Fold ATP synthase subunit a, chloroplastic.
Amino acid sequence: MNIVQFPINTLNFFYEISGVEVGQHFYWQIGGFQVHAQVLITSWIVIAVLLSSATLAVQDPQIVPNGAQNFVEYVLEFVRDLARTQIGEEEYGPWVSFIGTMFLFIFVSNWAGALFPWGIFQLPHGELAAPTNDINTTVALALLTSVAYFYAGLTKRGLGYFGKYIQPTPILLPINILEDFTKPLSLSFRLFGNILADELVVAVLVSLVPLVVPIPVMFLGLFTSGIQALIFATLAAAYIGESMEGHH
């Protein structure tokens, strides 16, 4: 009886932990589920900015690119190089859109949180902030990455993909399984922790020394925000490439 009760108590504990919140949040009821409205609002704004920018940039494509088209092609070439380096010359093509979407969404989200004065918009509870400032967003992005590299491995190698768990020796089976749990954890908490810490530091400095000191820290935050987007996209591409190669 005690043996059966232990996993039930453990699940109850994690369920209670999942209800822990920091600050106030504005909620919507959608289909019987309670969701963070401020995260959805800012996410939709970021998606709208990305879609509209891409549409306007390629609305009248030129053989010799200039202006916005030149910038879009530069970003596309950057993402292609990143995917080619991490996944491989032969396999990277189908994954450029996924890696590019991850990179651009995180990059624009991070910069929107650092540059845009979300505080001017009043909500009944809480306040608007970067989507990546919410653990739910970063966990969702990390889980999408996990689904992507499982899909890539199974598509490329079939059921033989699961053979990697007993390589180079079956003794490492528990560690290899644990690795698939730590990958999304590290991806989500690294991104969330860095963005949240940066916003907290800026908020504290603005409240203490509002004129000069916060400005260099804000510029540093822009740099680290871009680096975090690059790290996330690079690791996502590396995991996908690793799943198609075999054991590491």
